[in-house]
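New to this. Help decode both lines:
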Amino acid sequence: MNIYLAIIIGSLLAVWFLNLLSDRLSALAMRPAPPEELSDVFDAETYAKSRAYTLASMRFSMVSETFNTLILVTAVAAGWFNVLDQLVRAAGFGPLLTGLAYIGGLALVSSILGLPFEIYHTFGLEKRFGFNTTTPATFVLDRVKGLVLAAIIGGALVAGILVFLDKTGPYAWLLCWGFAVLLSLGLTYVAPTWILPLFNKFTPLEDDELRDKLEAFADKAGFELTGIFVMDGSKRSTKGNAFFTGFGKRRRIALFDTLIKEMDADEIVAVLAHEVGHAKLGHIKKRLVTGVLKAGAIFYLMSLFLDSEGLFAAFGMQDMSLYAGLVFFVLLYTPLSLILSVAANAMSRKHEFEADAFAARTTGRPETMISALKKLSVSNLSNPTPHPLTVWLEYSHPPVLARIRALS
């Protein structure tokens, strides 16, 4: 059997099985009553709803993942990638346009196959548990805008990579790496002004008391805030959140309107303190450096397999090409991707604990950070007791119970 085919099929099935096992163990780990630390915010009815939401989310996840895995395995085994390749080649485009058409076609098919699951998740699962506020018009506009952005940004990235690989010799991976990093940094810089407003409205925070408290904390922590904005998160969901976006003079904090509605001013200051902690403790820079190094490693590994006849034979391809090699490498990369994802999540969870501790220390009120975490847990119906395997595989943030205990 082709070794590449064995690795790809085996890794796809292994990831599917790990996710299935993870969900099953987390379902068994759920307690009949809320943990003592959360008993003041989870009454019996709310906790029962949280359990039901967690189980429903697991069932949905496994159905969608099983479908996606089955489609991928079938596509590889049945030679569907070659069928699409022959179709785009028959159109008579040049190498670059053919490559863009091939990768764009795969992306479009993936999007179409995933659409029924997105619709059910938004208007079925999320609506059933009281989260969804998305209208059909907003849903459609989001998908159209997303496809247009993916075509423009993704098309530019793929086109640049294909040109470098075709024209610049054995060290093309270095140029691909640099191009991808520059494009990513550029998008991060312009996102607050040009991209995010395409999907949400950002308005300056009008609550004078809250703004004064947030600015006072930022001054105390020696952190420059270039803007505090309220995002209309309620346009799509009742869940609350907050995040920093951009960097340099375009760095700003966005508070979901749902978060402002759920929390008092001191709790929102604690949330801000947590986000500031990520910056002051160097987490953002570490993640950036790690991401850049990871991208470099990926492009180097990619350069080793792009012209592998065995890899193309695994997909039943009649012709070899750079663009198909990119797609096949992504699938071949699945085992390493899982390992790197687990490592990145572990680092992220460590950073979250550190940012919580920073917020508790700089505000002098760890109980306020705990209160904010509890409210987020209840409003999002999060599972307070996931199985360790689930945390290890999927969680970029520690479970709320672990965070509360670390702050107590």
Remarks:
- Residues 44-78 form the longest helix (35 residues).
